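Worked example

This section walks through a single chain of length 149. The input is the sequence exactly as stored; nothing has been trimmed or padded.
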Amino acid sequence: MRGTVLGLGLLLAACGPGGPPPPPSAGSIQPEPINYPDIKTNELYGAGCNFAANDGGMSALVLAQEKEAIIKLKGKIVRIPADTKSQILPETARTRYVAPDRILILAPLPGAEPSENGVVRSLATSLTITDPRGQIQFFTKGQVQCKPM
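Given that input, the structure is written out below as tokens.
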């Protein structure tokens, strides 16, 4: 619990006007883009939100759904269960997903206003992945794009 509180404190500090987040820890990870063959092979269909990094093109780094978030690490799909007590994003996605070895947080950026384009709702968001002790393993800013399926 202490690590979770520390991780949330680091996340809040990262979102504030005080500057960039702390550097990732030595155990850093690098999520890879989830592409169409990944989606098709692993049947990753459903309503939710896709997170795309500002500096990473249009490819999703996270598929956030009602029951899980999906990321790709070292070429393998990794599923992280939803924290059902966390805030709900559009289309039943969550802001927090917790696994024994990592915590994934999608946090709307301060002052961000959602936009809509047809059925797609977008929101400026940060993605933070920590270890269970709250040490940041990955951080970036981008957009969540949420749509029904």
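What to look for: The two ends are 35 Å apart (CA to CA).
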